[in-house]
Amino acid sequence: MRLQPAFLAFLLLALAGCGAVPGSKPTERVARQAGSVPVAVARPEVRQCQAELGQTGSRFSPLTDRFYGAGCSTTNSVSLQGVGGDRGEFTVTNLGAVACPLANTFAAWARYGVDRAARQILGSPLVRIETMGSYSCRNVAGTGRLSAHSRAEAIDVSAFVLADGRRISVLSGWNASRQEREFLQVIHKSACKRFGTVLGPDYNRAHHDHFHLEHGTGSFCR
Ligand SMILES: [Zn+2]
């Protein structure tokens, strides 16, 4: 007895279908494990944040969301290379991934807090902010609690370079000339108005060479 061609075609389709269904599940799982969200389908708050950052005149590239395990991740993050100022751009060194809302606060602080204080107190505009980075999968020193750095929601700032070539570091400036001390104290105070948590050399030994600037709604300022 011969099988009808129509029945054969049905049989082949059914077999192909069987193969396709279980095959699709692992593909889906792999995509989720990789933890990446294409920029093209960015969430509204991501698009909004990046639009705001663009309006500050900052130079940045959006980064795909990444999950590293152990509670560490970089989501809604950008790579920030420069921040827009009143007259030009301030470069930002060594930053890596930084959460977009934090980048916006940082851009405002650099322009309205740091650059203007540099011109008023030290007589020269800001050209560069040196950092010790943002993202780092680690705990708050001496605790079992994850640091805001584990979500790229904190920036460690180490030094400021002015147009006249002067470099004021947190390490040496905290105990340097009266003007440099005043500059660092003024920008530390203005950081406290903008960031949720600010830690400097007066807080503890771990912060003797940088300001820790953390995104959030708190008001911890030391
Ligand atoms: Zn820090």
TrEMBL record:
Keyword Signal: yes
Domain of life: Bacteria
Name assigned to this protein: Extensin family protein
Domain Extensin-like C-terminal residues, every copy: 48-222
Organism ancestry: Bacteria, Pseudomonadati, Pseudomonadota, Alphaproteobacteria, Sphingomonadales
Alphabetized UniProt keyword annotations: Signal
Protein's UniProt keywords contain Transmembrane: no
Signal peptide region: 1-20
